C-alpha cells in the first residue's frame, strides 16, 4: 500500500512539474509578443535614383521626408517604421523605427536602425513584401498605413531603382502581388500619376482608401508629416476616411506653402467596383452608338487632359462632363456619362489642386489619343482590362486619326524617286507616295535626289479624314 502511495505522489509531483513548465512557457511566449498598436505606418522610401539628390542643396529628398516624420516621431499608439534606400547611402537599405529628433543635420537620420540590409533592389516586389511582413510582425496594429515614396507611372507601376535594380518600375500586377494577404486602411503614393482608376481597381482588395496624385507630385518634401502625423498621434482613434482626407489636405497645404504644383485626391476603394462597371458601360456605348460623331468624342477627350501625361491620360470626370456638353451625341451616351460622373464624385472623397480652375475630378483614366501611344499588350495585363476599356480605346485611337489627321499623295514630274521631306523631316518615302497620319493644317514639302537640284519648299494643306494630291515639278 505504501508503495502505491509513494508512486502516486511521484506521479503527482511529475505532473505538477510538467504543468508548471507548460504554464511557464506559455507565459514567456505571451510576454515576448510585441504590444499591439492602434496604427502602424509603414514607409517604403525608395530614393535609389539620381533624382533623389537633384535639389538645390543636393540633399536626399527621401531622407528629408524621414526628418519631417522625426519632427513627430512614434508614440505608444502610433508607430512609424521606414525602409529607406538612397543614392546618399550608395544603395544600402535600412529599416528605421522613427523616433522624435529635431534639427537633424543634412542627410542624417538619428532614429533607431532596426535592421541593416545592405544593397536591396527596391523595385523588386519581394523586397516590399519582406518589409511589410517585418512591420506587421514587429509592430502589429489595428490599422495600417502604407506609404510608397518614389517614382510612379500610373497603371504601368511604381518604385524605380536605378542603383540596385534594372531601371524598370515594379509593375502594377507585381505591386498588387506584393500586397497580397495584407489589408491596409490607407495606401499613400508619394509618386506621380498614381491617382488613376486602373490603380484604384488593382488595389481595391488591398486597402480601404487610396491617396495619390493625378499628375506629378513634387519631391520638394510635401508629405505633410508635421501636420497629419501630429494630428494622428494626438487622436489615434480617428477613422481611416478622416485620416485619408487629412493627409490629402496636409499635402496640398505643404505644396501650396512651398509654391509647387499639386493635385492630390483621397478615394474610397469600396466604390471602385461600381465606378469601373459604369465606365465600362460608357465605353461600350461609345463604341456602338457614336456613329459619325467621333469628332465630338475626340474634342471631349482633348479638353480633359491637364497632366504631364495628357497625351495618354485624361481626367475621367472632366471627360464625362464634356460628353454631356456635346451637341450631337445621343442622350443614351450623355446619360451614361452622367452616371460615371456621379460615380467618380461618390468614390473621390476629397480632391484638392493648386489649379482649381481646371476642375480636376480626382481620378485619371488611361486614354491615349493616338495609336502610337496605345500600349495594348501591356495594358491588358492589369486587372482593369477586365472592364474592356481597351476595346473602346482601340476604336477611339483609330477615330482620332480619322478626325484629326489626313493624308498627302505627293507626286513629282518628270523625275520620280525623289525623297519627300515633310516640315523639314525625312519621311523615308520617295515619290510617288502617300503620307498618312498628318495633323490637320498647313505644312511644307521639299524634294531631294542626288544629282538634282532640291525642289521646294512647297506649301500644302492637310484636311482631316481626307487624302489630298499634289504634283510638283522636279528634275528639270
N- to C-terminal distance: 135 Å
Strand order of the largest sheet: 4-3-2-1-5-6-7-8-10
Question: What class do helices, strands and sheet pairing give?
Answer: alpha/beta
What is the CATH architecture term of the largest domain?
A: 3-Layer(aba) Sandwich
**CATH class category label of the largest domain:** Alpha Beta
| Radius of gyration, in angstroms, nearest whole number | 30 Å
CATH fold category name of the largest domain: Rossmann fold
User: What is the beta-strand fraction?
Assistant: 25-35%
Spans of at least 5 consecutive residues whose pLDDT stays below 50 are 1-31
Shape estimate = elongated
- Could you tell me the number of beta strands? 18
- How would you characterize the largest beta sheet? 9 strands, mixed
**Number of H- or I-type helical stretches:** 13
Summed over residues and divided by their number, the pLDDT gives a mean of: 89
Helix content: 25-40%
Number of domains: 3
Tell me what the structure shows.
The protein is 36% helix and 26% strand. It has helices spanning 2-32, 61-70, 125-138, 172-178, 197-202, 225-234, 240-257, 272-289, 294-302, 316-324, 331-347, 376-379, 389-404, and strands at 37-47, 78-86, 92-97, 112-119, 141-149, 184-190, 207-213, 263-268, 313-315, 348-353, 364-366, 405-414, 419-422, 425-430, 433-439, 441-448, 455-462, 467-474. With 476 residues, it is an alpha/beta fold. The strands form 4 sheets. It has a 9-stranded mixed β-sheet with strand order 4-3-2-1-5-6-7-8-10, with helices on both faces. The protein has a 4-stranded antiparallel β-sheet with strand order 14-13-16-17, with no helix packed on it.
